[in-house]
Amino acid sequence: MSESPGGLRWPLLLVGGVALVAIGLAAGYGLRPDSGLGARASGLGTGDSGSGAWTNESRAPIAESRVPDPESRIPSPESDGVVTLTPEMVARAGIKTSRADAGTATTSLRMPGVVQPNAYKEVAVTSLVSGRVLQVRAELGQRVTTGEALATVYSPELADAQTAFIVARADQVAHAQRQTRTQRLTAIGAVSREELELLEAERAMHDSAVETARARLVLLGIPEERTQRLAGPQDVVTTIDVRAPLAGVITLRTANPGLNIDPATPLFTVVDLSTVWVIADLYERDFAKVRAGSPATVTTAAYPGLTLQGRVNYIDPQVQPETRTAKLRVEVPNPAGQLRFGMYVDVNAGESVREGVFVPKGAIQVVGAQAVVYLASQDQPGRFLERKVTVGAPDGDRVPVLTGLEAGDLVVTEGVFFLRAEAERMRGSRQ
């Protein structure tokens, strides 16, 4: 039975339409990102043995694990720097608190210094005559008094000077007697007036010679009363004592028996230790804080309870180019001789009084380059806030807080290290 062409056209058109719809659906499905082909094309395949078509239900948990919540990485402002402890932890850490109080502090510039002798009271002892050392009576480190004999020197020069004085004075006496006789003869006309005048002129020369010889003996250390007793060779002495010119301590001895010396040879060095100099380095940035006449105190680790008061009496006008410092000198009393030459001491000068808020020294902790304290909450026990502060130079057991605290704030003074460790642990856990 034959079919008409019109009957065949309708089924063909129906089949073609269904095919086009199927092709469109397939193409659209292939472009979806959650299709197996799309996942493999984009490199997101994970080796799943499934059909390759991931549904929304299977992708949702994976997306949450790969993309964390942004807010979970940012700590809230209230929790940053806050340490919360249980009552048991507070008791175990031994935490104690104290209130910051307002007050005044006396601050001063602290400089390291070295003890040196007072150069104005340091004397090099020499002999006034040339000769040879016969005996030494003083030892190194010995305390001596003014005028005490330190050594004995044999001196031919001294003997020559005494002999010259004896001869000059004998000539003076003889000339005086001759002049007296001439005056008598002139009075009776036995001698001319001219001869008398000549003798009077010569008398001035003899008087000058005696005074010159006497002055030389004084310069050689012979006292005047001894000079007056020089009547003949039997009174001449050949030795002389070298005496201490001031009271002090012998810090140098070069004299030994048999040493040939002259007036330029140093035999001893005597230093008066009643006062000493402390030399310190003043940095250029601190020039405005200290001036000559400023009070100063000197302390030393050798004597913890010793504090010596003095004044700055000299500041070197020249700055050392290598260190940018100037030498500062403080003269302090040293009656007991406790300060020894070369000792290291601390010099405090340029004191100033400053008002501020103070906390005990134990309340300050340094984290990196930043000083911090821990404030205790009065409303919530066991809650502590880490507060950054700026501190000044310590004043005894107190530390002035320049910024970050107010008077009355409750700060932790004991157990601070435990709080710091806990704060560090909490910061590490949040990173």
Characterize the structure shown:
The chain has 431 residues and is an alpha+beta fold. It has eight helices and 21 strands. The protein has helices spanning 5-30, 36-41, 56-66, 87-93, 156-187, 193-219, 224-228, 416-430, and strands at residues 82-84, 96-99, 101-117, 122-126, 131-136, 143-144, 149-154, 239-243, 248-253, 260-261, 266-271, 275-283, 295-300, 303-315, 325-333, 344-360, 365-367, 370-376, 383-391, 398-403, 410-414. The strands form four sheets. It has a six-stranded antiparallel beta barrel. The chain has a four-stranded antiparallel beta sheet with strand order 4-11-9-6, with no helix packed on it. A hairpin with a 6-residue loop joins strand 18 (370-376) and strand 19 (383-391). Helix 5 runs antiparallel to helix 6. The longest helix has 32 residues, at 156-187. It is rod-shaped and about 180 Å long. The protein starts with a helix and ends with a helix. Residues 1-8 and 26-80 have low confidence and may be disordered.
